[in-house]
């Protein structure tokens, strides 16, 4: 390079740098240098491939092809060496590879996990890296996490979880060109160290006790042997499904779900007064006081709303389990707020999606959202040391206590713990 060429090159670099233009992208000052380095590396790989054995088989160079590479430095074209027998498999830039840098793929997966659409991701990559990436390529990149999703779904579980919440979210998924409504089942557990963990997610056409039986069987097959307390909504047959797999489990139905279902059958003009009377039941200091309140509720409203009162009476045993515990445990188990809180965080990510192209597209996004959520679960539940002692008194040897169960302070095995499984 002459002195004049050197001066012009430096001027071009400075201008592009000051204007914020990508120096390695199309038209960038450094693009020819990057192109040259990659092409020379590919030529060296071809030289290594065409050894004496390959040449003996009649293999030799067969011209060059062209490829457009997208990277964190921008988009540029390269010439790729070819051999006659098409057996050359380069390592630097593999066949059919169009994304050069893995860090760009990681950025794309990260953006997708935050709920950004392919359109928004493509615009962001174009703005930041001066690189055009089609929706097809973006889908191929996000598909890289499919093996991680499957490994996470089948990972071993701990033998005991103290409290488990089971609930479903509902999404639209395309099936054979038609939109179908599907239920995404989520299971949130608290292990004996007090850490939250999403035990699994499952997709079905609708929420039902039969499918929950399959879910619980899968959890059991993955190593879960015992659940102390299972918190559920009021789905018919749910309790029977749980007890058929975990017969010692104590089932607490969600009070909030029961209240919501009750108010659907109470006239709007009566709802305020009815709720005032109902609070005497579920906010009572003991089960005995609550049952007196339930009796009074039936005497006052049973004639007008017999279906509502009958529902409370029929489900009372499973609705009233929380009275056995002190307020800290009551707050944990008498609603499904814990799993609903997790669902709220997931919906922040999935709300931009009208309908998912298939089941795996839904699982991919919820998996990535869950991975981000679990990273924040670095501490046990508040006052867990007191809670676990009460559970030990109640359930005895089913919850073996250790003097120092988690000395390192590490988070439980979850999505980020696959390498420890």
Question: Mind explaining what this structure looks like?
Answer:
Helix content is 48%, strand content 17%. With 421 residues, it is an alpha/beta fold. It has two domains: 1-100, no CATH class; 158-398. A five-stranded mixed beta sheet has the order 5-4-3-6-7, with helices on both faces. Strands 1-2 form a two-stranded antiparallel sheet. A hairpin with a 2-residue loop joins β3 and β4 (178-190). The longest helix is centred in the first third of the chain and has 19 residues, at 31-49. The radius of gyration is 30 Å and the shape is elongated. Mean pLDDT is 81; it is low at 407-413 and 417-421.
- The geometry reads as elongated
Largest sheet: 5 strands, mixed
Percent helix: 40-55%
Secondary structure: number of strands: 7
Topology pattern, helix = H, strand = E: HHHEEHHHHEEEHEHEHHHHHHHHH
| Low-pLDDT residue intervals, each spanning 5 or more residues | 407-413, 417-421
| Span between termini | 56 Å
How many structural domains does the protein architecture include? 2
Q: What's the oligomerization state?
A: single chain
Category from helices, strands and their pairing: alpha/beta
- Mean pLDDT, all residues: 81
* Strand content bin: 15-25%
Strand order in the sheet with the most strands: 5-4-3-6-7
Number of helices: 18
Rg (CA only): 30 Å
Protein name: Mutator family transposase
Family: Belongs to the transposase mutator family.
Keywords: DNA recombination, DNA-binding, Transposable element, Transposition
GO molecular function, one term: DNA binding
